[in-house]
Amino acid sequence: MTRHVEHVMGTVFSFDVRHQDDDAAPFVAAAIEEAVAWLHHVDEVFSTYKPDSPVSRLGRGEITLADCPPEVAGILRMCESVSDRSRGYFTAYPGGRLDPSAIVKGWAVERAAAMLREAGAPDHCVNGGGDVRLSGAAGPGRSWRVGVAHPLRPGDLAAVVSGNDLAVATSGTAERGAHVIDPHTGRPATELASVTVIGPDLALADAYATGAFAMGGAAREWVEELDGYEAFAVTATGATWRTSGFRAQAAT
Description:
26% strand, alpha+beta
């Protein structure tokens, strides 16, 4: 087993790589080092807190999209696609300012996990500030288990998700307060306290969780229509709901 914690993008990323052979430790460490370098690259390109990042400069109109690294155009295309799919509840311009962060973190973790698989480390969990990519197994015959923090009861879990190859993303008020803006009203979304989306790809799960949170109660029906994705939510009053397929991933 090899573990690593990295502070980047204003949050904590953790790597938990399972391997039985101690001889694998050096190449696993090298793969993690490559993945960590990737995360720092993403932060340099996409951070809205770094005034000299390409995304910050693009948002201020100082440079054009053609002047940015090619991944910026790719992310903005993904944002536009999810915005269309979510009827505008997800946007790369929350509050009218360019900020694709709601998809970037999940996308970055998804790529970091792919780097580990490509390096020959298939069994791992990568957690980026609560957005989690599970790959392979936690041990022989064992699935990974991820606890979903309860947004209204600090220290408690609202649900536990189990899986072998699964993305888990949560959007809510527990860490940053009411920060998700409903693009249709321009005001913070307050109907839900948190919503967790699971599925095969963390970039999309991350974006869908943000869109679903902005959508409020209507998100349940919307996620039901998404191919391969399920959701669990805690409302502002403490009630819960889940889509029809979420129970299959819930751990007992």
